[in-house]
Amino acid sequence: MSIGQTFLGLLESSPRHGYELKRLYDERFGQGRPLHYGQVYATLARLLKSGLVEVDGVEPGAGPERKRYAITAAGVTDVGQWLGQPEKPDVYLQNILYAKVVLGLLTGRDATDILDVQRTAHLKVMRELTRRKTSGDLADELICDFALFHLEADLRWLELTAARLDQLAATLAGTQTVGAGTPTHDTSERRDGSLA
């Protein structure tokens, strides 16, 4: 998530101090990963430098002066463009679970154990999210549903991979065949010594 654009969206309704932005962000988007104050003020400094926010007022405090930030017209345009753009769908063509399964097979370990351990970890997190979803508000429900759907997709992949382990092992060993015994790739040696 873009912290900068999120801050701009939060500032669009009214000017706010940095600590107010942190509190709102943590309440609505932090979900167990609150922002550090350093991130808040570094982000505000970048937004200020790029002209997307301005200092709307300065108030004396017990420590340093407290600045109140307001969004500029350029900031409104920026957040509007960001909201209107689709997010790139995450496609994990080389994810770490796949790498672990392949390395397990290549090193002679039981890849089924690797998949079982991962399945157990996924199910544990899914149970925690389901508990949180049932005891939370609508925002919690939506956030938990998003995570649960992704974890369910992972579980489907784990099941499919478990069903194809023998085939994957054969492919990695270079012995998988297609149809009636035709090799999927030629491993014969060329004249120059490289494999075909």
Q: Topology, pairings included?
A:
Elements: H1 3-13, E1 16-17, H2 18-30, H3 37-49, E2 53-59, E3 66-71, H4 73-84, H5 96-106, H6 111-135, H7 138-163, H8 165-173, E4 177-178, E5 182-183
Antiparallel strand pairs: 1-3, 2-3, 4-5
Helix pairs in contact: 1-4, 2-3, 5-6, 6-7
Biggest sheet record: 3 strands, antiparallel
Q: What integer is the average pLDDT?
A: 84
How much helix is in the residues?
A: 55-70%
Low-pLDDT runs of 5+ residues are: 176-196
CATH third-tier fold name of the largest domain: Arc Repressor Mutant, subunit A
User: If helices are DSSP runs of H or I spanning 4 or more residues, what is the number of helices?
Assistant: 8
Total strand segments: 5
Task: Describe what this molecule looks like in 3D.
The protein has 196 residues and is mainly alpha-helical. The chain has 2 domains: 3-81, Orthogonal Bundle (Arc Repressor Mutant, subunit A), CATH 1.10.10.10; 96-173. Helix content is 61%, strand content 10%. The chain has 8 helices and 5 strands; from the N terminus they run H-E-H-H-E-E-H-H-H-H-H-E-E. A hairpin with a 6-residue loop joins strand 2 (53-59) and strand 3. Helix 2 crosses helix 3 (37-49), helix 5 packs antiparallel against helix 6 and helix 6 (111-135) packs antiparallel against helix 7. The longest helix has 26 residues, at 138-163. The protein is elongated and about 70 Å long. Residues 176-196 have low confidence and may be disordered.
